[in-house]
Design a protein that fits this description.
alpha+beta; two-stranded antiparallel ribbon; about 45% helix; about 15% strand; globular
Length: about 70
């Protein structure tokens, strides 16, 4: 969880760094998070894991519809 314990300003700075890497530099990043807000902002594909097993894979919209 990359932003745990960060204030709002530091969190936004880190989010912008991650977005720059993924969108402008075309890099892939694996993030673990319990924050749907964070996932919606930073990710274009998500995996939901339960007890170490993949239960669902897809876009944010796809997973919200399930």
């Amino acid at each position: 969880e990359p932003t745990t314990g960060m204030d709002a300003r530091a969190k936004r700075f880190l989010w912008n760094c991650i977005l720059t890497l993924t969108r402008k530099d075309h890099k892939s990043i694996v993030i673990t998070s319990h924050s749907m807000e964070e996932c919606e902002t930073l990710c274009n594909r998500l995996v939901i894991m339960v007890t170490g097993e993949f239960k669902c894979l897809g876009s944010v919209q796809h997973l919200k519809a399930k």
